């Protein structure tokens, strides 16, 4: 990607602190058009297959968007390490820049397991969107949250502020390589965007398609208009004595889980296994906490200033090149 003045003006403009941090409450009104149900009473993790169908479908569909890092990746100041998943592209047991959905499993009885597909929850009020100082994340009208790999610096603040720590970073790719690769940025963040191009065309995400192809009427994933999905989840919870997760956490999301087991028990099991990705029942938006808001305000202000400086440098460089061209 060419680094242009236009790109940087876009970044600097999107980085306006007052517009990113303090306006996050308005996102409550943008719940989005679609939502998903993931039914844990039906998901069996495709355990008899080498790779779960939803995972396989996601990887196949998005493979052309997976990162292709440079070979000689270097750490950037002040860090002495970088995050590189490129040699673990086949890993499917966790979220990575190359694997945007995976299956957790917990034991509830001696021979009974629960399988939990995990990916971005697509929050109604996503703190990652509110926080990103470069405007690389957006909450789309369909309810999905999307990261632009053309604007992302890989600072990973979206992962820090995400209640579930979903986005994953790959170094050696992205905009930071064009600017100051030794001093700023860390790559690009990657996560599920709910097959953004498909749902923009009115189609269903590939993970949902794959689940239905295998389980037919007993499918574990449902996708549709948000109001209908929420109604379906509430009716099944009421009629079948199920528990819902995702409707209240972080003030609501576009992903609802149904379970016959209380989510408090599921979270306890995940904690006992020291799982990286958990399912706490009580989740509030981190930016609602005054001390977090102050901390992220400073981070965003610093990044905004950085984007502005680099934008100015690029503008000056372009002007200088133009002057030299005229002289020639």
Distance between the termini: 27 Å
Rounded mean pLDDT is 85
Oligomer status: single chain
Tell me about the largest β-sheet.
4 strands, mixed
Helix content: 25-40%
Beta-strand share of residues: 5-15%
Q: Report the order of strands and helices.
A: HHEHEEHEEHEEHHEHEEHH
Number of strands: 10
Shape: globular
What structural class do the secondary elements suggest?
alpha+beta
Radius of gyration, Cα only, in angstroms?
21 Å
Helices, by number, come to 10
Low-confidence stretches: 1-29
Widest sheet, order of strands: 8-1-10-9
Keywords:
alpha+beta, two-stranded antiparallel ribbon, 10 helices, globular, disordered N terminus
Q: Could you explain the architecture of this structure?
A:
With 328 residues, this protein is of the alpha+beta class. The protein contains 10 helices and 10 strands. Strands 8-1-10-9 form a 4-stranded mixed sheet. Strand 2 (102-109) and strand 3 (112-118) form a beta hairpin. Helix 1 runs antiparallel to helix 10. The longest helix is centred in the C-terminal third of the chain and has 38 residues, at 290-327.
């Amino acid at each position: 990607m060419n680094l242009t003045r236009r790109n940087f003006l876009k970044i600097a403009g999107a980085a306006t602190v007052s517009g990113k941090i303090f306006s996050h409450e308005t996102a409550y009104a943008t719940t989005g058009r679609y939502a998903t149900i993931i039914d844990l009473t039906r998901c069996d993790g495709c355990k008899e297959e080498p790779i779960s169908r939803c995972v396989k479908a996601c990887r196949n569909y998005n493979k052309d968007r997976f990162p292709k890092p440079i070979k000689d990746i270097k750490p950037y100041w002040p860090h002495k390490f970088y995050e590189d998943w490129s040699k673990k592209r086949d890993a499917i047991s966790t979220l990575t820049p190359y694997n945007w959905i995976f299956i957790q499993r917990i034991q509830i009885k001696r021979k009974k397991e629960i399988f939990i597909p995990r990916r971005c929850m697509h929050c109604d009020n996503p703190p990652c969107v509110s926080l990103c100082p470069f405007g690389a994340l957006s909450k789309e009208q369909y309810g999905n949250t999307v990261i632009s790999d053309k604007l992302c610096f890989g600072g990973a603040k979206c992962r820090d502020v995400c209640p579930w720590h979903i986005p994953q970073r790959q170094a050696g790719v992205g905009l930071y390589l064009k600017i100051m690769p030794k001093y700023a940025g860390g790559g690009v963040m990657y996560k599920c965007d709910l097959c953004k191009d498909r749902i923009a065309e009115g189609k269903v995400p590939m993970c949902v398609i794959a689940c239905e192809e295998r389980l037919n009427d007993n499918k574990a994933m449902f996708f549709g208009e948000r109001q209908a999905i929420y109604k379906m989840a509430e009716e099944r919870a009421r009629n079948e004595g199920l528990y819902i997760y995702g409707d209240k956490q972080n003030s609501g999301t576009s992903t609802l889980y149904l379970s016959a087991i209380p989510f408090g028990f599921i979270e306890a099991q995940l904690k006992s296994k020291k799982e990286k990705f958990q399912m706490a029942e009580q989740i509030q938006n981190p930016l609602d906490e005054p001390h977090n808001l102050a901390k992220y305000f400073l981070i965003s202000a610093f990044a905004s200033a950085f984007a502005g400086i680099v934008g100015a440098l690029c503008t000056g460089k372009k002007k200088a090149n133009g002057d030299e061209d005229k002289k020639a």
